[in-house]
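FW: tagging you since you asked about this chain on Friday. Here's the raw sequence from the shared folder, copied in full. Didn't touch anything.
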Amino acid sequence: MNRVSVAELKALFAQHGADAWLQVVSRHGKTFRLQRFVVTCDVGLVEPLMVQRAHTRERSLAHRFIQRVTPGSAGLLFLDGAPWEVQRRAVAPTFTREHACDFAEYIHGSTRDWAASVDRGDDLASAINELGSSHVLRSGYGLDANDPLARAFARELVGYKQRTMRRESRYRLDVLGG
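HL: got it, structure written out here
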């Protein structure tokens, strides 16, 4: 497995901005090491780790770290053991295979449209929050993201996320250590 140095990653961000991640994948493949972490965007690897019971008994230290620094992550993708099972049972009627496929198609299509239209001068964090909130509105609440009342609700959700995020640099994923 290829290793990406912090120096290389910083240089790629300086040269390519948010497209640095695409550069890393094109140079090092879908799965690589960054500091102590294994990073992957290979769906074939991620899906079993997130949803198969064998991988949810006890999450890895890296997984627990990401949960600690990600607001609102006390859900199926981050829990393990008995709390994971309780959440899984609670959402099982909602997340049937058919619903998941519908959500996946919507999220894939809207993300592609968003990526094609995003202005490189935009505040990337705000743009991603807006995209994510549109996904939550549609997939999580069944609301139309273009409805003014739904957009107001999304702004409240993003505002709550911003108020509850830990601001110290040690909790930030965009600040890399040496």
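FW: The mean pLDDT is 78.
HL: agreed, and The CA atoms of residues 69 and 166 lie 7 Å apart.
FW: great, closing this out.
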